[in-house]
């Protein structure tokens, strides 16, 4: 199967000289068109760094990122701008206020990327914005509101609609529900499960919480201290986790196991992890 996204041996460091710290140690990961994959790792493991590298925002020191047949990691500033304008790869942040301007209406916010990309008349942009809003289950009467007049769950849906309006091939969703309360979290995850499947949009869910993405992904990749330590179908990862860190994740996710592993077992797994690293 030809891959939509191919991350191959990516290394990223921050700082220089003595202060240099390697964050990603040769990460490889691929996604096919329409596939839904979870990238799971604890805080500081390098998830956002990997997302930023895929977007071409962070420079890699080794390896490559290919997307939709193009080597993104090799693009110069100008080519990168044009790649971003194309909208083929969209990023949804944990906090919707990071992608939404507080003074801009929902209508203009969703239409902005389309206007920047060009090629559509103003009425076409408006129609696409309305359709995108409807596709995330929100009514058209929200179009005239600004983000401060929306609930947290509505804001995140608007941020998703804004990304969808550009008809991307891949959505990078960085902790898309962790800022939401429990009820909104379930609703937005429910939306994300089916969203884009008809159009073959691939989704990469980035999260520290295996439980919250298990129901929406085909595969899971586990990132631990800058290395992908395990990749497999979501079902296999949950039923037969191999790496000690994955076992700890599965054991801690009470929603998956109905109870989680007991304290003593978690202590053993933490010890195994310490021995591992
Ligand atoms: N611009 C930067 N300069 C220096 N160090 C950075 C920079 N960005 C991130 N880091 C460091 O790189 C490591 C990985 O950070 P990253 O944000 O990728 O982790 P993460 O897995 O996304 O964590 P979280 O779940 O907390 O968001 C952390 O130790 C962080 O402090």
How are the SSEs placed, and which strands pair?
Elements: E1 3-14, E2 21-32, E3 36-41, H1 47-54, E4 62-67, E5 70-71, H2 77-86, E6 89-92, H3 106-117, H4 122-135, H5 152-164, E7 170-174, H6 182-194, E8 202-207, H7 210-214, E9 219-224, E10 227-233, H8 234-239, H9 244-252, H10 254-257, H11 263-276
Parallel strand pairs: 3-8, 3-9, 6-7, 7-8
Antiparallel strand pairs: 1-2, 1-4, 4-5, 9-10
Helix pairs in contact: 3-4, 3-5, 4-5, 5-6, 9-11
This protein binds adenosine-5'-triphosphate (ATP).
Brief write-up:
The chain has 277 residues and is an alpha/beta fold.
State the helical fraction.
25-40%
Distance between the termini: 34 Å
What is the CATH topology of the largest domain? Answer: Rossmann fold
Superfamily (CATH H level) name of the largest domain:
P-loop containing nucleotide triphosphate hydrolases
Biggest sheet details: 6 strands, mixed
Count of domains:
2
- Helix and strand sequence: EEEHEEHEHHHEHEHEEHHHH
CATH class of the largest domain: Alpha Beta
GO molecular function, one term: ATP binding
InterPro entries: AAA+_ATPase, ABC_transp_ATP-bind, ABC_transporter-like_ATP-bd, ABC_transporter-like_CS, Oligopep_ABC_C, P-loop_NTPase
Domain ABC transporter: 5-250
Organism: Herbiconiux daphne
């Amino acid at each position: 199967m030809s891959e939509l996204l191919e991350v191959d041996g990516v290394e990223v460091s921050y700082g220089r000289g003595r202060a240099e710290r390697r964050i990603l140690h040769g990460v490889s990961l691929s996604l096919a068109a329409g596939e839904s994959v979870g990238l799971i790792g604890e805080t500081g493991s390098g998830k956002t760094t990997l997302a930023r590298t895929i977007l071409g925002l962070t420079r890699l020191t080794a390896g490559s990122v290919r997307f939709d047949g193009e080597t993104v990691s090799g693009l110069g500033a100008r080519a990168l701008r044009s790649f971003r304008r194309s909208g083929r790869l969209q990023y949804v942040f944990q906090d919707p206020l990071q992608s939404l301007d507080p003074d801009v209406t929902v209508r203009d916010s969703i239409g902005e990327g389309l206007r920047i990309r060009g090629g559509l008349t103003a009425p076409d942009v408006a129609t696409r914005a309305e359709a995108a809003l409807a596709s995330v289950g929100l009514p058209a009467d929200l179009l005239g509101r600004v983000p401060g007049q929306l609930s947290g769950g509505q804001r995140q849906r608007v941020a998703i609609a804004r990304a969808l309006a550009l008809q991307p091939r891949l959505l990078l969703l960085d902790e898309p529900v962790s800022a939401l309360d429990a009820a909104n979290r379930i609703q937005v995850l429910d939306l994300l499960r089916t969203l884009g499947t008809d159009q073959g949009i691939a989704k990469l869910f980035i999260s520290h919480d295996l439980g919250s993405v298990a129901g929406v992904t085909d595969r899971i990749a586990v990132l631990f201290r800058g290395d992908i330590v395990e990749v497999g179908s979501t079902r296999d990862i949950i039923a037969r986790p191999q790496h000690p860190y994955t076992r700890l994740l599965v054991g801690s996710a009470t929603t998956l196991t109905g109870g989680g592993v007991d304290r003593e077992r978690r202590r053993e797994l933490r010890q195994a992890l310490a021995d591992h690293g």
